[in-house]
Write a structure and sequence with these properties.
Number of helices: 4
Radius of gyration: 24 Å
Helix content: 10-25%
Low-confidence stretches: none
Shape: elongated
Mean pLDDT: 94
Order of helices and strands: HHEEEHEHEEE
Strand content: 35-45%
């Protein structure tokens, strides 16, 4: 078995102003009184394909991105997030997180004490996969699902087949006041097939669905 191809974080994510926004937000949190602050930019890209009897029923693509700041002020957690990637949004999130922690301090019965943790500078991690599913043309995916569907429908007793695949790519940039900066990219895939047999005389039907769970793999799965 060949080893998985070494992958790197997508360049379009790395091209975002990750460090600029992190530096501005963390500095604002520190100036506002946070003893600890961590900053994240998170992007979630998904595609969902659904076919019935080899015919496409839906093909949905989506992408979401935002930033978040978490702080500790006087032993109390505070959190805030923004959907906009800008210095203004990063500053607002930091100040809002500190405000939340300050407001909750009177209700905190147990002071937060963070465990000692090494500093991880400029670390990157990518989940193992051979083929990025987002690099495969949608038409090729549809043709593969349709082929499997037709093979199932050709089996005795199978009247209908539904086929679907959900693919997800999560990308996160993390930085904190201690000096850690970590970027990670995770790819997940979930294909699913369901065969239906119909008993016309009894007016009943039965179904059988694949049981394979979602996997941290690429299109090769």
């Amino acid at each position: 078995m060949t080893s998985p191809t070494q992958r790197s974080v997508d360049q379009d994510f790395l091209a975002l102003p990750l460090r600029e926004l992190a530096d501005a937000s963390l500095d604002a949190a520190r100036r506002a009184g946070a003893s600890h602050a961590d900053f994240r930019i998170h992007r979630l890209v998904t595609q969902a394909l659904n076919l019935r009897d080899g015919v496409v029923q839906s093909a949905l693509d989506s992408s979401e991105i935002g930033l978040a700041v978490r702080v500790v002020v006087d032993g109390t957690w505070g959190f805030a997030s923004q959907s906009e990637l800008s210095v203004t949004a990063a500053l607002d999130a930091a100040r809002s997180a500190v405000h939340v922690a300050t407001a909750l301090r009177a209700l905190n019965r147990e002071s937060v004490e963070l465990a000692a943790e090494p500093v991880y500078r400029d670390v990157r991690w990518v989940s193992p996969y051979d083929i990025d599913p987002f690099s495969v043309p949608t038409q090729d995916k549809v043709e593969l699902l349709a082929d499997y569907s037709e093979r199932l429908r050709a089996s005795d007793g199978v009247d209908h087949v539904t086929a679907s695949v959900l693919q997800v790519k999560e990308q996160t940039f993390y930085a904190d006041l201690a000096g850690s900066t970590i970027t990670q990219q995770r790819v997940r895939l979930h294909p699913q097939f369901e065969a239906t047999t119909v008993d016309q005389s009894a007016g009943a039907f039965e179904t059988m669905r694949t049981l394979a769970p979602p996997v941290s793999r690429g299109w090769e799965y």
